[in-house]
UniProtKB/TrEMBL annotation:
PANTHER family: DTDP-4-DEHYDRORHAMNOSE REDUCTASE, METHIONINE ADENOSYLTRANSFERASE 2 SUBUNIT BETA
All copies of domain RmlD-like substrate binding, residue ranges: 6-278
Species of the source: Streptomyces achromogenes
Designated name of the protein: dTDP-4-dehydrorhamnose reductase
Similarity remark: Belongs to the dTDP-4-dehydrorhamnose reductase family.
Organism placement in taxonomy: Bacteria, Bacillati, Actinomycetota, Actinomycetes, Kitasatosporales
Domain of life: Bacteria
Length: 307
């Protein structure tokens, strides 16, 4: 696929995917507000879109006629969704229904979440039964069903905890890696759960897999999992970040998940795939572990002083 692609959502993941795709094909990034980094800086375009407005979505699709669509839409802050379940559902499910109805024959990759599982199992594969335990997971699970029921070429790509570089002023909900890195570089302490397990996946790897799925000329499974190769707690991960940034190890304090903002997350937010390595499109993509990811990202945080 070398034709135009529409990416709906301009947060960390949407922007990372748009940047990757723009190296090879025309990309339009659509969201309510402009992203912090103008897409023109990496060869993409931005257009304003309220993705819950069906008429606006139809007009945009008629104008762009994309060969592929990536949906990274809706609020992803689990705590906010728990406090606003109806708004979360409306944002995620309405948009999925809209694009499924307007583009049923287009290759659509929807970025979904490990929160569609309740955390009762230490591991979840594509064949694990869905059982969301929070409002965000419930909204995403319903959005998956809406898309898969109508759009024949849809893939729900469930991703584990995505991480990458974000500037310190990107907002209070920085991804976990960036939040830790900025604080550690300034000598600030980190309290991280020692009872919340995850399989972090590097943003660049998410973008590479998404690009490969869009290019795939063969049928794809309706659901795929994308987690990193390491299973560890947030406290263990924070310790890795500290080590790679050269920060003192004692700045990281392990605490119970119940005392943090991650209390509503599943205990085991871990994903593995039975399928990803077997597909011609994605089988050769080597997913990077947290140590390699930290080494790759560390230079981006060099502008703040190490302690």
């Amino acid at each position: 696929m070398t034709g135009p692609v529409l990416v709906v959502g301009s947060g960390l993941v949407g922007t990372g995917i748009a940047r990757r795709l723009a190296a090879e094909q025309p990309v339009t990034l659509a969201s309510r507000r402009p992203p912090p980094v103008p897409p023109a800086a990496y060869g993409a375009h931005w257009t304003a879109l309220d993705a819950t407005d069906t008429t606006a979505c139809r007009r945009l699709l008629d104008r762009l006629r994309p060969e592929g669509i990536v949906l990274v839409h809706g609020p992803s802050d689990v705590t906010w969704c728990e406090a606003h379940p109806e708004e979360a559902r409306a944002a995620h499910v309405t948009v999925a229904e809209t694009f499924a109805g307007l583009a049923p024959d287009t290759r659509i990759v929807m970025i979904s979440t490990d929160n569609v599982f309740d955390g009762g199992s230490p591991d979840n594969t594509e064949s694990s039964p869905v059982s969301p335990a929070n409002a965000y997971g419930q909204a995403k699970a319903e959005a998956e069903r809406a898309l898969l029921a109508t759009a024949a070429r849809t893939v729900a790509l469930r991703v584990s905890l995505v991480y990458g570089h974000e500037p310190a002023d990107a907002g209070k909900w920085l991804n976990f890696f960036a939040a830790c890195a900025h604080r550690l570089r300034h000598g600030q302490r980190i309290e991280a759960p020692d009872d919340h397990w995850t399989t972090p996946v590097l943003l660049d790897d998410v973008a590479d897999v998404t690009a490969a799925l869009l290019r795939a000329g063969h049928p794809l499974p309706p659901v795929l999992h994308l987690g990193g190769p390491d299973r560890l707690t947030r406290a263990e991960w924070a310790a890795v970040i500290a080590r790679e940034l050269g920060a003192p190890a004692d700045l990281v304090t392990p605490v119970p998940r119940a005392l943090t903002r991650y209390a509503s997350r599943p205990v085991n937010a871990c994903l593995t795939s039975e399928l990803l390595a077997t597909l011609p499109a994605t089988g050769r993509i080597a997913l990077r572990g947290v140590r390699e990811g930290a080494r790759l990202l560390a230079p981006a945080f060099a502008g703040t002083p190490a302690v």
